[in-house]
């Protein structure tokens, strides 16, 4: 692989040999139909999710309020996605049959689509009341949203993200990351909802308490 050599000039010889060895041994699997389809679905899902997130933030809040936060890209998120690719590559190399369960993979793809639509529907419904950073005090353009998808679910965008993120791992037939993503994302939202609702009760008072009483959070086992 001569095109890799300039990149590896500064890397210890043993590490570079290891990388070249790994790349050459898994390259046949990476270029298979299965990997091509599943990985291109994965990269398209990530690109569409963050691209539309950015465009909606730009539309509702303007250029000055849009940051990396609006793209929802954090260090932990990048690590999780890299981890999922590592799991995928290791498994497709050692257990290629694991990736051939198309019913499972297509179910994951359907979840990715459902999760994406739910999240974007929530953002569009809430409009300027939807901010990526949790508001801790009342601002002029912040109104209580109780219509559309919010009529039944208090946290539809979190529900959508949970479905989307776990869906990406089911789509890749990644058992470890499916469980890991479900646990980590669930825990993250369980904590975040407590914090967010504390301020929503402060801002909207009994109107929010009454709204919360007649709706479900949208996250399993979170009241
Ligand atoms: C990232 S958005 C998430 C909104 C909601 N938790 C969801 O999952 O769709 C967080 C912001 O939305 C606001 N928010 C959440 N629910 C709301 C509602 N029903 N009406 C108005 N603002 C809301 C919060 O105050 C917070 O600033």
TrEMBL record:
Write the record's keywords in alphabetical order, separated by commas.
Answer: Endoplasmic reticulum, Membrane, Methyltransferase, S-adenosyl-L-methionine, Transferase, Transmembrane, Transmembrane helix
Specify whether Transmembrane is a keyword of the entry. yes
- Which cofactors is this protein said to need? Zn(2+)
- Enzyme category, top tier: transferase
Indicate how the chain sits in the lipid bilayer: Multi-pass membrane protein
Superkingdom, natural source: Eukaryota
Q: Which residues form the signal peptide?
A: none
What Gene3D superfamilies does the record tag this protein with?
A: 1.20.120.1630
EC assignment? 2.1.1.100
Report the protein name in the record: Protein-S-isoprenylcysteine O-methyltransferase
Where would you find this protein in the cell? Endoplasmic reticulum membrane; Membrane
Q: What is the lineage of its organism?
A: Eukaryota, Viridiplantae, Streptophyta, Embryophyta, Tracheophyta
């Amino acid at each position: 692989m001569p095109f890799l050599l300039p990149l590896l000039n500064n890397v210890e010889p043993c590490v570079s040999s290891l990388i070249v060895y790994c790349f050459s041994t898994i390259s046949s699997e990476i270029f298979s139909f299965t990997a091509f389809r599943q990985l291109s679905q994965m990269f398209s899902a990530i690109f569409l999710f963050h691209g539309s997130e950015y465009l909606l933030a730009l539309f509702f809040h303007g250029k000055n309020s849009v940051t990396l936060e609006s793209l929802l890209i954090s260090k932990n998120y990048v690590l999780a996605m890299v981890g999922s690719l590592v799991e995928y590559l290791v498994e497709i190399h050692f257990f290629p049959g694991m990736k051939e369960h198309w019913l499972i993979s297509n179910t994951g793809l359907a979840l990715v689509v459902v999760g994406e639509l739910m999240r974007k529907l929530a953002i569009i419904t809430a409009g300027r009341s939807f901010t990526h950073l949790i508001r801790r005090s009342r601002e002029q353009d912040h109104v209580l949203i109780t219509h559309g998808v919010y009529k039944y679910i208090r946290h539809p965008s979190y529900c959508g993200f949970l479905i989307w993120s776990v869906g990406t791992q089911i789509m890749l037939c990644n058992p470890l990351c499916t469980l890991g993503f479900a646990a980590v994302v669930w825990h993250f939202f369980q904590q975040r909802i407590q914090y967010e609702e504390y301020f929503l009760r402060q801002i909207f008072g009994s109107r929010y308490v009454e709204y919360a009483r007649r709706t479900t959070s949208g996250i399993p086992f979170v009241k």
